[in-house]
User: Which sequence fits this backbone?
């Protein structure tokens, strides 16, 4: 999985397909603080690896689908 790093616009290869907080925030278009708030409220799935956290982008996007509001 190739992700673009917003801080220096270089490509990062994630072998496991898991993203860190900065990458998932960029992927779904929100701030890292919003990601932290979503984690705290348990709105998105997160994998803890030691003290670090990782996200599976498809699972996060699926979790956020329930908050989508359809047009009337």
Assistant:
């Amino acid at each position: 999985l190739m992700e673009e790093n917003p801080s220096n616009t270089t490509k990062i290869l994630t072998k496991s397909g898991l993203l860190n907080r900065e990458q998932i925030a960029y992927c779904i278009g929100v701030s890292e603080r919003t990601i932290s708030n979503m984690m705290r409220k348990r709105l998105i799935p997160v994998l803890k690896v030691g003290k670090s956290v990782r996200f599976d982008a498809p699972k996060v996007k699926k979790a956020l689908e329930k908050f989508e509001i359809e047009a009337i």
Remarks:
- The two ends are 36 Å apart (CA to CA).
